[in-house]
Structures are given as structure tokens and as C-alpha cells.
Design brief:
Helix content: 25-40%
Shape: globular
Number of helices: 10
Radius of gyration: 21 Å
Largest sheet: 7 strands, mixed
Distance between the termini: 28 Å
Number of strands: 14
Oligomer: single chain
Order of helices and strands: EEEEEHEHHHEEEHHHHHEEHEEE
Structural class: alpha+beta
């Protein structure tokens, strides 16, 4: 941390502005790091970055308006910070420097509309916005997929969360009014038109903060990898849970402890649900889509064990209302948001009743967030 103050950023003349959105995931949770399928999209809530070169060889200055905090670092002396938000930036810059990118000193002002810990990937938005901004500011010519990889690896190496690639891919590659069917094994994707009218997507934030760098997130990944190792003894062609079907898994149930079996069963079943969800969307069968969302949540609650009482309450509460077709927890778990498929004419009424019930049950005020599928990261000069 440097000794900067706000005066340094007075009369800031921006060379480049980057807008980096958050993301939702309609279905396909914890499947990305298992080479599976996911169905995310960027949303119309974002982080803005104002960049300028500062004519120094290696001094970089960053001001976060939300935290009212300053980060100053030297390009020759980058190392992980004890302050979490700084590591998303430092980690990305480190990925550029590993590849001998020609970067000099720069300044950046960051302002976010994204709630932290809500499961809408404020972290990936911060990483990808930094990556795209630096790539553009210094004309480095790295591809979009390179920048996605840099951003994911920053989270692995500086933050400590062994995440998959879904969040970063959605933040960069999404297109307005579409969902992304992403194959996390091949990194190929299909754009799925989003036309759910008269239904919309609504997030209800538990305002229970989760920490994806916690041991539980990485533990789930380790449990899945252990399952793969056991399955490989009978099916050597298997490289990830993506290659396993339910018949294969059930044939080895006696070789797996109950926890490992449940983790693997969830991931394999969720991959099936993602493909079924895409079919339902293409056939405009939103009732089936809603049921798949509820089934996804049950798997996350009972087999993957990443939910919490607040998330379960919100999902169960929604089942009493016919104009809510489906709901599930979204994101890493242990807090954050539920995502609802709800009739547009019922949003105001539902907002009132769910907020009242949640406050009565937990003594916590929920936040309601309406979202629309949006374009991924973009720049303005």
C-alpha cells in the first residue's frame, strides 16, 4: 500500500475506460472446474475502470472508490497482499509479467455497482476489467481467451481459490440478450437467445457473505478429484467427471465413500440438467426450466453440501407461489444470492412478501436485484 491520497487523482484525464460486468449462472454450479457444462451470462451491473499511463517506468497507482482505498505497487516487486481486493489486480498484472508483457506505470480509478459476496462474480469482473484495460492501454495484443486465462490464474495464484473458468469467460464473452452454453472442457460455447417474456430473472441476496477462498470451496474440488482417481482405476479413459455417466458411477458405488459418491453424483446430474435446461429454453418450456432450477438447488443442498439455511429458506419460500417457476442458490455457496424465474407482473408483490418473511425469519434485510443478460467487457477510449 502506498502513501497516495485523493489529491493525486484530481483532474484525472482518462485515456481508456473499461466496463466489466458481473455475471449470473442460470444453472450449472460447481461443474466448471470438473470440465462440465454451465449456462451463465453477464448482467447489466458492472465495474468501471478509468486508466491512464503515468509516464513512470514501473509505479502503478489504483484508487478504489468503493473501499476509499489506495493501492500502489512497483512492477518489479509484485507479491500477494494481505488485502483481498488488491490480489485480484496484482495477480492479473503478475500473469502479464510472466509473459514478458511490455507494461510501464499506470493509474486507475475503479468504481463498482456489484455487491461483494453476492455470488455475481465481482471478483471475476475486477480481474477481467484489469486484464482488458492493461491489454488495451499498452496495446499488448493478447486474445480474449488469453485474458480469461490470466484472470482465472490470478485467482488461483494470488487469491487462493481454485475456481473454474466460467466466471471469467462469461464476464468477457457474453452478448446482450443471450445466455452462454459453455463447455468448460473445450472452451467452446453456444449463444442461447434469452427470450423469457413475460418472465424475468430476479436475485434475492441473503446478505450472508461467503468467502470463495475458504477451505470448503477448494475441498469440494479435491473431493471431486479424488472421485476421479478412484473411477480411473476401472475406467482409465476418464480424465474428469465430465467423462463419467451415472451408470459408471453407480457401478463403483461400493468403492466410494458416501461423501465422494454424493459429490460426483451431483456434478454428473448437474451436467445433465444443464443440457436439459438448454432444450427447455429452445422449446420455450419455462415450466420445465423452473423445475430443473429447483432440482439443481436440491443437489447443491443435499449432495454437494454448499447451501445454508438462508438460501434454503428463500428457495423453499418461492415454491408457494405459482408465478415463480423456479429458484436456486447461485455461486459458490454458503451465502450470496438465490436466482428466481418469476413473472414480471409479480416482481413488486413478491419483493415485498419475501423481504418481510426473510427479515422475520433471520433478522436480516435481503437485497433484491433485477438483472438482464448483457454484453461482456467493453472499452471506450
Amino acid at each position: 500500500m502506498g502513501t497516495l491520497n485523493k489529491d493525486y487523482f484530481d483532474n484525472f484525464e482518462t485515456e481508456l475506460t473499461v466496463f466489466s460486468p458481473g455475471r449470473i449462472n442460470l444453472i450449472g454450479e460447481h461443474t466448471d472446474y470438473n470440465d462440465g457444462f454451465v449456462l451463465p451470462t453477464a448482467i447489466d451491473k458492472k465495474i468501471s475502470f478509468s486508466f491512464r499511463k503515468n509516464n513512470t517506468a514501473e509505479t502503478c497507482n489504483v484508487y478504489s472508490k468503493n473501499f476509499d482505498a489506495f493501492l500502489q505497487f512497483q512492477l518489479s516487486k509484485i507479491s500477494p497482499s494481505t488485502i483481498e481486493w488488491e490480489n485480484y489486480i496484482l495477480g492479473v498484472i503478475d500473469e502479464f509479467l510472466k509473459r514478458n508483457a511490455s507494461i510501464t506505470g499506470f493509474d486507475c480509478i475503479i468504481h463498482s455497482e456489484l455487491p461483494i459476496g453476492a455470488g455475481i462474480s465481482s471478483s471475476a469482473a475486477l480481474e477481467c476489467g484489469t486484464a482488458i484495460g492493461v491489454n488495451s492501454l499498452f496495446n499488448l495484443q493478447f486474445s480474449s481467451k488469453d485474458l480469461i486465462t490470466f484472470s482465472r490464474d490470478a485467482e488461483h495464484n494470488f487469491v487462493g481459490t481454485k475456481c473454474g473458468v466460467m466466471d471469467q469467460f462469461a464476464v468477457v464473452m457474453s452478448e446482450k440478450d443471450h445466455l452462454l452454453l459453455l463447455d468448460c472442457k473445450t472452451l467452446t460455447h453456444e449463444l442461447i437467445p434469452f427470450n423469457f417474456s413475460p418472465y424475468k430473472l430476479l436475485l434475492v441476496n441473503t446478505n450472508i457473505s461467503h468467502n470463495l477462498a475458504s477451505s470448503e470451496y477448494n475441498k469440494r474440488r479435491e473431493e471431486c478429484e479424488l472421485g476421479v482417481k478412484i473411477i480411473q482405476q476401472n475406467y482409465p479413459e476418464v480424465t474428469s467427471l465430465r467423462d463419467v455417466n451415472l451408470d459408471m458411477l453407480n457401478s463403483l458405488k461400493s468403492d466410494l465413500n458416501e461423501t465422494i459418491y454424493q459429490r460426483c453424483n451431483y456434478v454428473i446430474s448437474e451436467n445433465i440438467r444443464v443440457k436439459q435446461a438448454v432444450k427447455s429454453i429452445k422449446e420455450n418450456d419455462l415450466n420445465s426450466l423452473g423445475m430443473l432450477m429447483y432440482a439443481s438447488h436440491e443437489g447443491l443442498r443435499n449432495s454437494y453440501d454448499v447451501s445454508c439455511p438462508e438460501l434454503d429458506f428463500l428457495v423453499d419460500f418461492s415454491k408457494s407461489y405459482q408465478l415463480v417457476l423456479g429458484a436456486r442458490m447461485m455461486g459458490g455457496g454458503f451465502g450470496g444470492c438465490t436466482i428466481h424465474l418469476i413473472h414480471q407482473d409479480f416482481i413488486d408483490e413478491y419483493t415485498e412478501v419475501v423481504s418481510t418473511a426473510y427479515l422475520k425469519q433471520f433478522g436480516i434485510k435481503a437485497s433484491i436485484i433485477g438483472v438482464n443478460p448483457c454484453q461482456g467487457c467493453f472499452t471506450q477510449s
